Amino acid sequence: MSELAIDREIDRSKMQVSDEVAIEINGMNKWYGSFHVLRDINLTVNQGERIVIAGPSGSGKSTLIRCLNALEEHQQGRIVVDGTELSNDLKNIDKIRSEVGMVFQHFNLFPHLTILENCTLAPIWVRKTPKKEAEERAMHFLEKVKIPEQADKYPGQLSGGQQQRVAIARSLCMMPRIMLFDEPTSALDPEMIKEVLDTMIELAEEGMTMLCVTHEMGFARQVANRVIFMDAGQIVEQNEPEEFFNNPQSERTKLFLSQILGH
Amino acid sequence: MSDQTTNPIAFVAEGTIPPAPPPANETGIVKWLRENLFSGVTNTVLTVLSLLLIYVLVKNTMPWIFNGVWQANSLSECREILAGKTGACFAVLTERWPQLIYGFKYPEEAYWRPNLAFVLMLVAFAPVLFFDLPRKMLLFTAVYPFLAFWLIWGGTILVPLVALIGCVGASLVFRKLGSNSFAAGFFGAIATALVIWNVGGALIPEGASDNAWLTAVPSRDLGGFMLNMMLGVTCVSLSVPLGIALALGRQSNMPLIKWVCVIFIEFIRGVPLITLLFVASVMLAYFFPPDSTVDLFLRVVIMITMFSAAYIAEVIRGGLAALPRGQYEAADSLGLDYPQAMQLIILPQALKISIPGIVNVAVGLFKDTTLVSVISMFDLVGMIRGPILASTQWNGVYWELLGFAALLFFVVCYGISQYSQWLERRLATDHR
């Protein structure tokens, strides 16, 4: 895929993986009806890791990260996010959700609110931040994703790439410790993919813990510290990007890589 | 040979073509006429025929309207004045004006009270309908129902005062308890209101209304277009929030709430309004304690509100279903809890989608208030059909009276419809 999207040197000085555990998944299983979507998932993510989850469509990669903030319910196993266990307790779920940012394939901005209101809504209502402070922080993050001048527009007036950057800024305004990306560039034109990837790289350079479901193998190669390959609901292979791309072990991974990188 | 000169596909623009004005017959009224009225043989013929039809209609109705008699005491007097000419007898409107507007029993010296209530209603609605107005005005909107009750029904001010205190107490309790648990706040608020109303009701001395500053007017003395307005306004304002609650309840994960809402909606929608009104006037008394006298107006309001709330609930359910799943997920992923997500994200969008449907129900409901004439309440249509047409002076004046009723309803309904279109334009932020 578009390996050309990244055209700059990446500053790795702050990309450090700490020993502190951010997410721990133990023996997690999930079914849709009788269909076994996620099979015995075990995964530990440390603070500061940048993980890319790849795999063919229907392999359960989106479902996996959506389980991490309880957008999907898992039926078996344990998920601990930032020291809080995901259970049916709504208080725990809301706590985890406010600490974990999520970026969606279709942006999911709130179309009836301006860009600035999109960014200040959750800090004001969930974190009870004073309005002025929330707006200052929102402008800070909008500057970071390079669209402060759009603050008073509505999402419908922005391009796809701009909307996705707003979505990232909106998540960042909650000061999350972990960011989940669910195919953030899949609905975008090639030119816009670059602007969104640039934003994600900057985030990685600041040491954010990131889990990205993406088909951008260039991003995986250069930014990730670990690539996870999923197929048919299970983790088939995981490795450092260099090894993963140059020396895949499983047949399934080899086939996938040849298809995705072959042309 | 070089490719440059022979390649038939190659083309390079030589410069920018400056914009020019369109040809004269492509602009203005000529173009409009040609495109809209005379674009072909068939359309030209249709245009001419329509003009003819309009001419015939106007030619025949205008004398009737312009020869109209405005001052007379009976139909026969009208006919004398007209002396065989074509002409309407609008005198019935001027002579029976108070009856058409206020009904035939409302005390004449108290007409200023509903008038004042009507003017204040416009003030109370303004901040709800036009949200650019200062939010402080909503305080008056909150007090208005009690004020209007006192103005129209009169009697002791203690009754609306106790009702107001009950509501204020309930909202305080809800604010206090509701921040922790919605259910606690909800039931706590209801309990508080009931306690205050019962205690307050017991404290109001017997006969407090007898010599009140505003003479008490019983509900059965209300009538005319005033009654239609009162029923319409009360029922629409009550049924929108109830409809929202029912629509959300129908989507609930809790089976009990869900099934209560589904059964309520399906049952009420499956019954004609006229049946519900008969239930209100005749049978509802069986459900209340034997010697309680629940006001007929209140019973009718309950029934019409339930009826339109069921319809509005379905309209809003459509709006909720039209929202992409992503909106719920985005709200969830930011950590908003259910009430916040509904209040800030889901309902503003779902209600915006539902505006045409809600307005449809509201307009229908407003016109349906004339059905109360069937259960012998003398609303505008009830007044016309009953006391006015049955009187010896005005027996037979159908066109003028019913045309007047139609005009009143049309003005209100057209106003509602225009407002909703303005609202839709105002709320359009999606720039599709």
TrEMBL record, chain A:
Looking up InterPro entries in the UniProt record yields:
AAA+_ATPase, ABC_ATPase_HisP-typ, ABC_transporter-like_ATP-bd, ABC_transporter-like_CS, MetN_ABC_transporter-like, P-loop_NTPase
A GO term, aspect molecular function: ATP binding
Limits of the ABC transporter domain? 23-257
Cite the entry's keywords alphabetically: ATP-binding, Nucleotide-binding, Transport
Supply the PROSITE patterns for this chain.
Answer: ABC_TRANSPORTER_1, ABC_TRANSPORTER_2
Pfam families documented for this protein: ABC_tran (PF00005)
User: Which family, according to the similarity comment?
Assistant: Belongs to the ABC transporter superfamily.
Q: Which PANTHER family match?
A: AMINO ACID IMPORT ATP-BINDING PROTEIN, PHOSPHONATES IMPORT ATP-BINDING PROTEIN PHNC
Official protein name in the record = ABC transporter ATP-binding protein
Q: What is the organism of origin for this protein? A: Ruegeria profundi
Automatic annotation (TrEMBL), chain B:
- What UniProt keywords are attached to this protein's entry? Cell membrane, Membrane, Transmembrane, Transmembrane helix, Transport
For this UniProt entry, which segments traverse the membrane? 37-58, 110-130, 150-174, 186-205, 225-248, 260-284, 296-316, 396-416
Task: Name the predominant localization.
Answer: membrane
Q: Which residues form the ABC transmembrane type-1 domain?
A: 225-420
* Domain of life the protein comes from: Bacteria
Q: Which SUPFAM superfamilies match?
A: MetI-like
> Which Gene Ontology terms cover its molecular function?
transmembrane transporter activity
Presence of the UniProt keyword Nucleus in the record: no
Q: Which PROSITE patterns match?
A: ABC_TM1
Q: How does it sit in the membrane?
A: Multi-pass membrane protein
Q: Which GO terms describe its cellular component?
A: ATP-binding cassette (ABC) transporter complex
User: Might you name a Gene Ontology BP term for this protein?
Assistant: amino acid transport
Q: Where in the cell is it found?
A: Cell inner membrane; Cell membrane
Q: Does the keyword Transmembrane helix apply?
A: yes
Record-stated family = Belongs to the binding-protein-dependent transport system permease family. HisMQ subfamily.
Q: What is this protein called?
A: Amino acid ABC transporter permease
Species the sequence originates in? Ruegeria profundi
